[in-house]
Amino acid sequence: MAPFVAALASEVGEGDAALDLACGTGYLTFAAAERAGASGRVVGVDVNQAMLDVAARRLVPPTTLVRAPADAMPFADAEFDVVVCQQGLQFFPDLCAALTEIGRVLCPGGRLAATSWAPRDRSPYHEAQGQAARAADPGHTDGSAPPAAFALTKQRFLQAATAAGLVHLAAEEITADVVLPALPAFAAAHLTALPFGAEIASRAPDTISVIAQAITDSLSAYQTPEGFKVPFVSNLLTARKPS
Ligand SMILES: C[S@@+](CC[C@H](N)C(=O)[O-])C[C@H]1O[C@@H](n2cnc3c(N)ncnc32)[C@H](O)[C@@H]1O
């Protein structure tokens, strides 16, 4: 995630009031706090208390964490200069309502910067994971429609952001070449951290190592002296509240 965290954190300036929406365990929250500095203020928001509990372990005041859904946040109008959101928009049940709420809490001219994965077949690791899971466990729930993580198209973002009244919309792909931690151990650990992988692990635990090995084998073309170096492709989605 590091290259994508860096891309979003760079949108936060010194002294900004920044909101990290769908902050999860706080990776971007704390990178944003470093950028905002002592004169700034960063709030991490997530709907999942277990995520916030992990983030809270490395919390450094004045950064705060708040449990709330993206479309009903307990903040005043125009409270933030910038909203960042890493891999969150695609999971919101009502994207337009969430973008409207983001617009409400942004000051006039305030900025939104978000990432969401490009279609899965653009990123070889994600594609290998999906193919290996389907082959080893044909019954699993990740088989047909695009999984939510990959389902937010640039066009859907642009439509929803327009409907939410945001302006200066842009959607571009950014690619990061990432050296993966050692395979197949990383592939197994990562898989079981995902909802569909956890479901497979609880039902057919031996299948996890089969999938992890298949992922490793299918990425052989990306092996380098440093390890498996694989491109990951994300959409970088940006917008502003009208001034
Ligand atoms: C893939 S994780 C990304 C977490 C974090 N931004 C990161 O990059 O590590 C997606 C996050 O979105 C959160 N989320 C999903 N739906 C949400 C909603 N409606 N409102 C707020 N957060 C939500 C989840 O709880 C989860 O922490």
Helix proportion: 25-40%
Low-confidence segments: none
Main beta sheet: 8 strands, mixed
Shape, please? globular
Strand content: 25-35%
Contiguous helical run count: 9
Summarize model confidence as the mean pLDDT.
Answer: 94
Task: Report the CATH superfamily of the domain at 1-117 and 152-175 and 230-243.
Answer: Vaccinia Virus protein VP39
SSE sequence, one letter per element: HEHEHEEHEHHEHHHEE
Structural Rg: 19 Å
Short description:
With 243 residues, this protein is α/β, with parallel strands linked by helices. The chain is built from 9 helices and 8 strands.
SSE layout and pairings?
Elements: H1 2-9, E1 17-21, H2 27-36, E2 41-46, H3 49-56, E3 64-67, E4 80-86, H4 95-105, E5 106-117, H5 124-136, H6 154-163, E6 167-179, H7 185-193, H8 195-203, H9 206-218, E7 223-224, E8 227-240
Parallel strand pairs: 1-2, 1-4, 2-3, 4-5
Antiparallel strand pairs: 5-8, 6-8, 7-8
